[in-house]
Specification:
Layout lengths: L14 H4 L23 E9 L2 E11 L2 E9 L3 E10 L5 E9 L6 H4 E9 L2 E8 L2 E8 L4 E4 L5 H18 L7 E6 L12 E7 L4 E6 L6 E5 L5 E5 L8 E5 L5 H15 L6 E9 L2 E9 L26 E5 L3 E3 L2 E3 L2 E10 L2 E7 L14 E6 L1 E18 L4 E19 L1
Parallel strand pairs: 9-10
Antiparallel strand pairs: 1-2, 1-15, 2-3, 3-4, 4-5, 5-6, 6-7, 7-8, 10-11, 11-12, 12-13, 13-14, 14-15, 16-17, 17-18, 18-21, 19-20, 19-25, 21-22, 22-23, 24-25
Length: 419
């Protein structure tokens, strides 16, 4: 029987519980030193979990001069990739050919594309090809570690970490000093707005590495073995709260991809944290909250997914936006008609609501100087678990109502008063 569970569903993946992450003794040859273009091949996989749910599986075949990756992820919607890499003698990417298939794409161009990248000491040339045509671009980045950025593709992260460790050793860097790398995006079209982002790899000791991207809040924590192989990745200190484990068992990517696509089609939604809107009228005031709805996925929420004593975006993805058509108070804070963003600061003994006047930002873009005010929320412990983060606005009469935020076993509420 294959290792994946045939009851795989969109929001509950039993394979995450049944998969045995065994580290079998297998032949291995890692490129921490210069090598020829021929040599032994290692096969392995990476499995990525978000809470109890599996969000990607990757199968990797690696030899000194070549790497082949097959991966399916649903982050935020299902994509399947077959990628072939030519590697330099020191393990950096020389050429990449990536075929991307998105089953839920609305057009032929959205459903399939090929991305070719040629990397040199002077930069990278990128060609995006699909049914709409060919788009090419090039970036200058002298002697840089250049990799594609695909959120759940950890074979590439392993390459960039290994290259950075090699460079840190050659330059005699101390623990905690970083090596920069550059990234291009296979899932974005080239053009004037297409940029080459950067990140930094910081070796902390012989087994621990910190990874930061300039577009992602926080840091990822990586463990490596003595040969430099990436064993685990943890995103608990970043906005990608995933856990990744290397496995010697090879995932059946094709079968799991078909299950992911079928589950996505049945659900009728393709995002992990679906955007939603809560609307209500209280007297003359029309109110709405535009927010994303993450799932609990069996995780501990308060003090873990939602850290104590830190500002939480109160949802996922883009900032949560609150709009009122008339002057009101929320938790005693006076709001003129208009749009605001809502944030919260949970503590072990309570939670504060933060109303901010900045709008249009991503959920990591909180600016305290734009706060309109803060006020405590009423808290309640629920007996039944709320799987999907839920915002409600209810009306009691023509002047009064309530804003509620529920997830897991907590419910936070604030009175609303129409002025």
């Amino acid at each position: 029987m294959p290792w994946y569970d045939k009851k795989l569903s969109l929001h509950h993946m039993p394979l995450a519980q049944t998969f045995r992450f065994s580290m079998m003794n297998r032949p291995f040859f890692f490129l921490l030193a210069a090598c020829a273009d021929s040599g032994p091949t290692e096969q392995y996989g990476f499995v990525t979990l978000l809470g109890r749910d599996t969000v990607s599986v990757e199968r990797v075949s690696r030899s000194p001069g070549r790497m082949v990756s097959d991966i399916v992820d649903r982050f935020p919607f299902v994509r399947q990739r077959h990628s072939e890499f030519e590697l330099t003698a020191d393990g950096r990417i020389k050429r990449m050919v990536m075929d991307v298939r998105t089953p839920s794409g609305a057009t032929p161009a959205a459903r399939g594309r090929r991305v070719i990248a040629d990397v040199s000491d002077d930069g990278v040339r990128i060609s995006v090809r699909d049914s709409a045509g060919v788009r090419d671009t090039a970036f200058t980045a002298t002697n840089a570690i250049i990799v594609p950025h695909v959120s759940m593709m950890y074979s590439v992260i392993e390459l960039e970490v290994a290259a950075a460790l090699r460079r840190a050793a050659a330059q005699g860097l101390k623990a905690g000093e970083g090596v920069q790398f550059r990234q291009f995006y296979p899932d974005r079209d080239v053009g004037p707005s297409f940029t080459l982002h950067q990140g930094v790899v910081k070796p902390l000791d012989n087994t621990r590495v910190e990874l930061r991207h300039d577009w992602l809040a926080g840091a990822g924590d990586i463990t490596v073995d003595s040969a430099g192989r990436m064993l685990t990745y943890a995103g608990a200190r970043s906005t990608y709260l995933v856990v990744v484990t290397r496995t010697a068992e090879l995932p059946d990517v094709e079968a799991i991809g078909a299950q992911f696509a079928q589950a996505e089609q049945r659900a009728g939604a393709n995002q992990l944290s679906v955007r939603d809107t809560a609307r209500a009228s209280i007297g003359i005031a029309t109110l709405s909250v535009d927010y994303s709805r993450p799932l609990a996925r069996g995780r501990a929420l308060l003090g873990a997914v939602i850290p104590f004593n830190s500002v939480w975006r109160t949802g996922a993805n883009a900032a949560t936006h609150f709009t009122t058509s008339a002057p009101i108070t929320v938790a005693g804070l006076k709001l003129a008609a208009g749009t605001y963003t809502l944030w919260t600061i949970p503590r072990p003994d309570g939670v504060d609501l933060v109303v901010n006047t900045q709008t249009g930002q991503w959920g990591t873009g909180y600016n305290q100087t734009r706060d309109l005010g803060r006020a405590p929320l009423q808290t309640q412990v629920l007996t039944d678990t709320v799987e999907k983060f839920t915002v409600d606005i209810t009306s009691r009469d023509s002047k009064r109502g309530e804003l509620s935020l529920s997830w897991g076993t907590f419910r936070w509420t604030a009175p609303i008063q129409v002025q």
